[in-house]
Design brief:
By secondary structure, the chain is mainly α. It has helices at residues 6-32, 34-37, 44-80, 95-100, 108-118. The chain is built from five helices and no strands. Helix 1 (6-32) packs antiparallel against helix 3 (44-80). The two termini are 32 Å apart. The mean pLDDT is 89.
Length: 119
């Protein structure tokens, strides 16, 4: 983390903690959603609509849960001094990239290469 100043690390940690708080709140709202618990619908079309909405909410909850794990991973990397280092090439991840995507684990060059390989 030598490429990041102590002030930058503090700024990024605050950003991650804020995103963690927001993500936990979103997950809790999804868990409290009455649609996920409701099952007493008589009409077939209403039932199908309800099921589609239920699936959408489950997908949203799963996405938020995965993002929360990434946030927690980034916070653990700050604590052990490895935050901001590309997990592919070992080079520093720029502060600008980390501000935009504080859970980034790859530098922009490696991320681009990995995306090309996925296509």
């Amino acid at each position: 983390m030598e490429h990041l100043s102590p002030e930058q690390v503090i700024q990024l940690k605050k950003l991650l903690l804020k995103r963690k708080e927001d993500t936990i709140r979103k997950i809790n709202q999804l868990l409290e959603n009455k649609i996920l618990a409701s099952s007493d619908v008589e009409d077939e079309i209403d039932s199908a609509d309800l099921e589609m909405e239920r699936l959408r909410l489950i997908c949203l909850r799963e996405r938020e849960t995965k993002y929360l794990k990434k946030i927690e991973y980034a916070l653990s990397k700050i604590e052990n001094g490895t935050y901001g280092i590309c997990e592919n090439c070992g080079k520093p991840i720029s502060f600008e990239r980390l501000k935009a995507r504080p859970v980034a684990i790859y530098c922009i060059d490696c991320k681009k290469k990995l995306e090309v390989e996925e296509d």
